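FORM 7B: Structural annotation worksheet

SECTION A. Query
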Amino acid sequence: MAQQTETERPPQNVPQNPAANQSQERRPQISERDLKWKQRTSNPRFRMFLIIGLVVLLVAGFFLWRYFKSYQSTDDAQVDGHLNPVSARVGGHVLKLLVNDNDYVQAGQVLVQIDPRDYEVLVARAKADYDDAVATAKAAGVNIPITSTTTSSQMATAMAEVAAAQATLAAAQQQYDAANAQLAQADANNVRAQNDLARYKQLVSKQEISQQQYDQAYAAAQAGSAAVDAARASASAAQHQIKAAQSKVLQAQAEVQSARSGPQQVRAMRSRADSAEALVESKKAALDQAQLNLQYTKIVSPVNGVVTNRTVEVGQNVQLGQELMRVINLDDVWVTANFKETQLRDVRINQPVTIHADITGKDYKGHLQSIAGASGSITSLLPPENATGNYVKVVQRIPVKITFDSGETKAHDLRPGMSVEPKVWIR
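SECTION B. Predicted structure
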């Protein structure tokens, strides 16, 4: 019995009121930390600070949102510049090389010296040809007024000779007419004398006249015949004088025709002088070209900049147009930034730009100079062909040129090809 009583006795740790024990187990256990937080949040001052903090966060978020919306940036950007090639304008043997790679040179500075002796000989030859052409042109120019004066005097002389020959011809014609008249008169007198002689001869035979009268008639007949012969000779001489005068007239007229060709001779002489002047200009051009070629033996830098890609060496024979090196002008660099097409909605020309350079860690000021007329993919060597059945739209990038403000690159710390991150301020 005693054992059963001990067995039926309830355990010591079992609560006497089971309902109360269950309510205690369901009640949440509040930690000390939660209790402190509850007490703090129930404080009005804490609530005010919390509200102020929320307002401050909202304002800061608003300004951050406005800041990030005030610019467009990209990391797909690099510094670009002019890579000025330096090439030979004449061929020849390289005598001197005055620069090395990465040297800074000034515009006009001599970079390479080509052996000038061959070109000095060409200059001397061109100078001699030019001097000879100048002398020939001077002689041709002097002959023009001489020929003009000579032809003028020849014309006047020929005209005077024509007038004199025509006057001589007229005088000879008059003499010929007078000789013909004298011949006719002498012939008439001779006929009368011969007739008288015939009659006197009959009379003297009949002794009707004296011998003296017959002798006089005979002498008169002989004189008439002689007068006819003399008159005929004078007429013939006058006729020869007419022919001689006519020949002189023809000769004078020929000289006039020859003198009239004087202006053509002057024009021909002037044409020869013009040809000589043209030859002078040609020789002068050849001399200028030879002098230029001599100057081209000194290859100079086209711009201020840094030498790179030098391929020429002393003793090398270079050809016309052969590239020897390049000079990069660090005073004229810009940024080419490839923006997504969705970023260019509010981008405009002349908007300010802040350019962050990776190499220096500094920010540079600039402005947006221009926007390319096509995307980079269109201007590539193999543009994409979108006329396919499985076309996938891809956001394209548009090259944008950004130039630095004055004085920003004077330190020459930016080189073409360097990476930069530009920010275009759109607001």
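SECTION C. Observations
Confidence is low (pLDDT under 50) at residues 1-15. The chain has two domains: 73-115+303-425, 119-279.

SECTION D. Sign-off
Analyst initials: ____
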